[in-house]
Design a protein that fits this description.
Blueprint (H helix, E strand, L loop, with lengths): L15 H4 L3 E2 L1 E6 L5 E6 L2 E5 L4 E7 L10 H9 L1 E6 L5 H7 L9 H4 L4 E3 L6 E3 L4 E12 L5 E13 L4 E2 L2 E2 L7 E3 L5 E3 L12
Antiparallel strand pairs: 1-13, 2-3, 2-6, 4-5, 5-10, 6-9, 7-8, 9-10, 11-12, 13-14
Length: 201
């Protein structure tokens, strides 16, 4: 099968999200200038550079109570900072609960029954108990083609790692089983790994 996106695919559901998988989930915590907290999962997320460490996530779509975007991007525009929380399998239900379409004044931490812990290097909060959290200052927000599509880039200024996830000096994903997004309503979990050396190692 071949299709041109502008002409449609003729399938029951859009296959694009199922092709680019698995995708890590960035559980983005932000607050607005008045201190109102927000927490939302984004599967258009990844690390993009080592030195300095940098990450990005993309927000698509808009809320009726925001100006052409969602709470996360709006808050980041106001404060210039955000925190990426890594989602473990055990936090699946809380992550899903936090994705609900709530009003901009509602607190997803409270809605999902999560502990909000103050960050160290930025003004904001991280998810208590998350296997890892990355405190970030914004480097740029890029407007992408299409309605309400934005890519947010940030430099990591602080890294939290849960002690039980460190094994012999390595951050061991098998200790917490990271959640990843597939297409449609499907997810997967990393519970096994293997090593592979590069040809020039």
């Amino acid at each position: 099968m071949f299709y041109r996106p502008e002409e449609g695919h003729g399938l029951p559901h859009n296959p694009f999200n199922a092709i680019v998988t698995p995708r890590p989930i960035g559980w983005i915590s932000t607050q607005d200038a008045a201190g109102g907290r927000n927490l939302a999962p984004y599967s258009f997320f990844n690390a993009v550079a080592y030195v300095p460490p940098q990450v990005m996530f993309a927000s698509t779509g808009a809320k009726p109570d925001q100006d052409g975007t969602k709470d996360s991007v709006s808050n980041i525009r106001e404060t210039g900072v955000f925190c990426v929380n890594i989602v473990e399998f055990a936090m699946l239900d809380a992550m899903n609960t936090s994705s609900a379409s709530l009003g901009k004044q509602e607190d997803e931490f409270a809605h999902a029954g999560l502990e909000a812990v103050a960050c160290e290097t930025i003004k904001g909060f991280r998810v208590g108990g998350a296997p890892a959290s990355l405190e970030c200052k914004v480097t740029q927000i890029i407007t992408l083609a299409g309605p309400a599509n934005f890519a947010v880039f940030g430099e990591v200024t602080g890294v939290h790692m849960r002690d039980d996830c460190l094994v012999d000096g390595l951050f061991d994903v098998k200790k917490f089983k990271p959640l990843a997004r597939l297409g449609y309503k499907d997810y997967t979990v990393v519970d096994d790994t293997f090593s592979l050396s590069r040809p020039d190692d």
